[in-house]
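2024-03-11 09:14:02 INFO receiving multi-entity request
2024-03-11 09:14:02 INFO entity count = two
2024-03-11 09:14:03 INFO echoing inputs for audit
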Amino acid sequence: MANELPGMTLKAIGVVRSEIKQPSMPDGKDVVSDIVVDVNLTEALDNLDEFSHIIVLYWMHQRAATGQPPTKVRPMGKQKLPLVGVFATRSPDRPNPVGKATVRLLQRQGNTLKVKGLDAIDGTPVIDIKPYLPGYDSVTDAKVPQWVTKR
Amino acid sequence: MANELPGMTLKAIGVVRSEIKQPSMPDGKDVVSDIVVDVNLTEALDNLDEFSHIIVLYWMHQRAATGQPPTKVRPMGKQKLPLVGVFATRSPDRPNPVGKATVRLLQRQGNTLKVKGLDAIDGTPVIDIKPYLPGYDSVTDAKVPQWVTKR
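2024-03-11 09:21:47 INFO inference complete, emitting structure
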């Protein structure tokens, strides 16, 4: 089936520069980081700063090397939480280690974006940047199971 | 810089089955589609149906073959809109043709997810599925430029 399709290879379009040097639980709501974009793509960032928030897709490279990912994990590594399917979590140990964060865009200067709330470690390859579109990207009536809010 | 990192290769974890056969403008809020996940990953879907909404990352394969993407595009192909940086749009003609949709999960049956609102064409490779987390994935005070809402 789908796996017979030709390879899908990503190019890094930039890199995260952050004070976060080690993977940690998603908790980085106040962290300010830079995204340094490939200088050849500087023009592709034009108009992005007309948006207050952006979506960043990135490659969780430290997890990408650990071999076959598990199909079940404990959310946020918490032993008291039930073992659940990995697609029901945001665990980086997933078949394609692509992370997705919605962050506030503080400033764009040339090929550098200053953002707030990006929970990706220093050196993380960035694969895409998209504008956050209220309505398209947000849901007003979303429901989550109880174990998500149990901390 | 980032481009010197080793190749980042995606595996399709599933495929979209939809009545949408041709790329179109994002307009598919009411379309019901199936995501047929690799049968070896069936267990990884456990617990996903405890969430009302999911995030789907997919490979816009029809655009992936068209060579060097432009750095500037007209949003939604509309000639009356200004030429803007491609990262300020959701155009599929981007350096890495990865699409992101937030959709309602109607049903999970084995390795098949029935979803509402996925604007991806039939045969689209799916690369990741994540639970939608209000607060983490949503923004209450997001601002967008006027050209986004001008239709």
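2024-03-11 09:21:48 INFO post-check: Chain A touches chain B through 69 residues (CB under 8 Å).
2024-03-11 09:21:48 INFO post-check: Chain A is about 5% helix and 30% strand.
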